[in-house]
């Protein structure tokens, strides 16, 4: 049995990961590819009224059009998120979950939305054991949980939007019906999931060209079944899925394949408005969605690092990176031991951020020696996710993340619906009597986390500073910290902050570095006990970011993805 999240990561393919057996020419090619991605040379986007940053140009364009036509940031965020379910389908979808942090300009405070579903009412540990599983099969109907994204879109628009859900769906409907040319990074990722899609009748018919292959970069792709599903939702509202005929089709299809969802599970689903957690860092405050997400690890990292003279160490120096890596190990170890469905947690999340607790945990950080730590978890931390950020001329900012967990989620498409269902149930553990043990109607551990930063204003109050996120499973909290420190400690603009080379710690002593972090630094880390490997741009996630200026906005989009930032 796989006993930890980190152990599972060893079995996952890491894009462009260098191995000891890699040839000199292969290593050189990887280094060149990494350097092209991290030094793309594009400038930050500066805009007077509104800005948007997403991982796909068609989504950015759709959201920008909403802003230009008088819609607000919430309208644009939902519109772009739905477009991404069409043009970046392996990463996101109607069958996934959503989290958002919203700064409404007229309220001047941060609001959190957890639009994620629970396990099916028939999903029990005993049922999985009886089916012969020692761990939850991650690419199957058995891992499917209630999808929360659709309800999240509707809830955001109902609370703050100025357009209807039907209007927000329209650009996605048109793209699904008429088609679009597939972008390069998406095409590459899609090709890597052909084996998963071939295994399911509905997925094969929906997402493989002639039922055989992924579309190539620049090739036209249509999904008329999904256009039909979105039209039904536009006409009937989210109730079509949550208790209506679409929901009945989904529940019946999942049950036929051995899954655990019922129509009542869908009908009983609700989003939750939550109070975000935060941690202060030198006049700034990082905000995260509370458990069952992993955002608390980013907050712990910042708190652990605050007393150290990080600027003196120098950006991406061996000393600097060593401290960040060691802080990450401590934060992720706590994820394993404590974070789950809040109803089952045995510790108050605020206690994990308290001064006495953080002071004690900081004692584990040795300035010159890498430590072995308990593996950070008991379930998968892979993630296929989209992140986007939007700001409008009134000052409203939205940080939104939408995910199906693995590439194409469970790999299951109920025939005729045009969308795949997430496998978020793989985030549970089968180990008994743990906070995250699988059980009916329970929230699984979540990897996806939107980020937001406020800072002290001139009048002593709090003002918004950044809406940002970094995609990529367990990369996300450590990515949040790296991008934020790039700006607040080293004065980078948003584009420079996401361009800068990143590291990704996996487990134990194993850590990957992008090639722009040079040989001398990597060797110095090796001398401290780290097991350093060279990794490519696919391993460190993709970031999107918007910064509030004294007047207007600055935005950046990660060159490791297909997307871009735009403003008006």
Describe the structure.
The protein is α+β, with helices and mostly antiparallel strands and 568 residues long. It has a domain at 46-271 and 381-427. 36% of the residues lie in helices and 18% in strands. It contains 20 helices and 21 strands. The protein has a seven-stranded antiparallel β-sheet with strand order 1-20-19-15-14-9-8. Helix 4 (73-87) packs parallel to helix 7 and helix 14 (295-305) crosses helix 16 (318-338). The longest helix is centred in the middle third of the chain and has 21 residues, at 318-338. The radius of gyration is 22 Å and the shape is globular. The chain starts with a helix and ends with a strand. Mean pLDDT is 89; it is low at 1-39 and 374-382.
List the topology elements:
Layout: H1 5-9, H2 24-38, E1 45-47, E2 51-54, H3 57-68, H4 73-87, E3 97-103, E4 111-115, H5 125-130, H6 149-160, H7 165-178, E5 180-181, H8 184-191, H9 194-198, H10 201-207, E6 220-221, H11 224-236, H12 245-256, H13 263-267, E7 272-274, E8 277-281, E9 284-288, H14 295-305, H15 310-313, H16 318-338, H17 355-362, E10 384-391, E11 397-405, E12 412-413, E13 420-421, E14 451-456, E15 462-470, H18 475-488, H19 494-499, E16 503-507, E17 510-513, H20 519-527, E18 531-534, E19 543-548, E20 553-557, E21 564-567
Parallel strand pairs: 17-18
Antiparallel strand pairs: 1-20, 2-10, 2-21, 3-4, 3-11, 4-7, 5-6, 8-9, 9-14, 10-11, 12-13, 14-15, 15-19, 16-17, 19-20
Helix pairs in contact: 3-4, 4-7, 7-11, 14-16, 14-17, 14-18, 16-20
């Amino acid at each position: 049995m796989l006993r930890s999240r980190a152990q599972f990561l060893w079995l996952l393919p890491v894009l462009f990961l260098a191995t000891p057996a890699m040839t000199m020419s292969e290593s050189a090619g990887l280094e060149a590819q990494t350097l092209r991605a991290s030094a793309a040379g594009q400038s930050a986007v500066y805009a007077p009224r509104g800005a948007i940053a997403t991982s796909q140009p068609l989504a950015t364009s759709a959201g920008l059009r909403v802003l230009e036509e008088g819609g607000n940031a919430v309208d644009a965020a939902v519109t772009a998120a739905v477009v991404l379910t069409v043009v970046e389908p392996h990463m996101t979808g109607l069958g996934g979950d959503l989290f958002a942090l919203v700064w409404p300009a007229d309220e001047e405070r941060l609001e959190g939305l957890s639009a994620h579903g629970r396990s099916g009412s028939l999903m029990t540990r005993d049922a999985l054991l009886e089916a012969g599983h020692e761990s939850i099969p991650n690419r199957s109907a058995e891992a499917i949980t209630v999808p929360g994204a659709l309800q999240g879109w509707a809830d955001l628009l109902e609370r703050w939007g100025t357009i209807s859900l039907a209007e927000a769906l329209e650009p996605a409907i048109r793209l699904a019906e008429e088609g679009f040319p597939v972008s390069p990074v998406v095409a590459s990722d899609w090709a890597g999931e052909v084996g998963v899609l071939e295994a399911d009748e509905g997925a094969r018919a929906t997402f493989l060209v002639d039922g055989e292959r992924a579309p190539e970069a620049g090739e036209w792709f249509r999904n008329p079944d999904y256009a039909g599903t979105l039209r039904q939702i536009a006409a009937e509202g989210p109730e079509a899925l949550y208790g209506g005929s679409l929901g009945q089709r989904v529940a019946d299809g999942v049950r036929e394949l051995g899954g655990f969802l019922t129509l009542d599970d869908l009908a009983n689903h609700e989003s939750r408005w939550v109070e975000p957690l935060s941690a202060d860092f030198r006049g700034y405050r990082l905000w995260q969605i509370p458990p069952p997400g992993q955002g608390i690890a980013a907050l712990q990292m910042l708190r652990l690092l605050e007393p150290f003279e990080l600027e003196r160490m120098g950006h991406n120096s061996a000393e600097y990176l060593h401290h960040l890596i060691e802080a990450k190990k401590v934060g992720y170890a706590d994820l394993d031991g404590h974070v789950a469905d809040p109803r089952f947690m045995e510790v108050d999340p605020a206690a994990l951020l308290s001064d006495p607790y953080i002071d004690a945990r900081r004692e584990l950080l040795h300035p010159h020696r890498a430590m072995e730590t308990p593996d950070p978890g008991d379930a998968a931390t892979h993630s296929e996710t989209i992140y986007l950020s939007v700001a409008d001329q009134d000052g409203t900012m939205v940080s939104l993340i939408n995910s199906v967990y693995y590439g194409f989620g469970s790999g299951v498409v109920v025939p005729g619906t045009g969308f795949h269902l997430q496998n978020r149930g793989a985030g549970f553990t089968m180990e008994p009597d743990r906070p995250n043990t699988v059980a009916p109607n329970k929230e699984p551990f979540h990897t996806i986390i939107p980020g937001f930063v406020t800072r002290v204003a001139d009048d002593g109050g709090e003002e918004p500073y950044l809406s940002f996120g970094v995609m990529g499973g367990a990369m996300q909290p450590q990515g949040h910290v790296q991008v934020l420190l790039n700006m607040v400690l080293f004065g980078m603009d948003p584009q420079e902050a996401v361009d800068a080379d990143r590291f990704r710690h996996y487990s134990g002593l194993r850590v990957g570095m992008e090639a722009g972090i040079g040989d001398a630094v990597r060797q110095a880390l090796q001398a401290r006990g780290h097991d350093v490997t060279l990794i490519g741009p696919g391993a460190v996630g993709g970031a999107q970011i918007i910064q509030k200026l004294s007047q207007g906005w600055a935005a950046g989009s990660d060159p490791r993805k297909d997307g871009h930032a735009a403003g008006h």
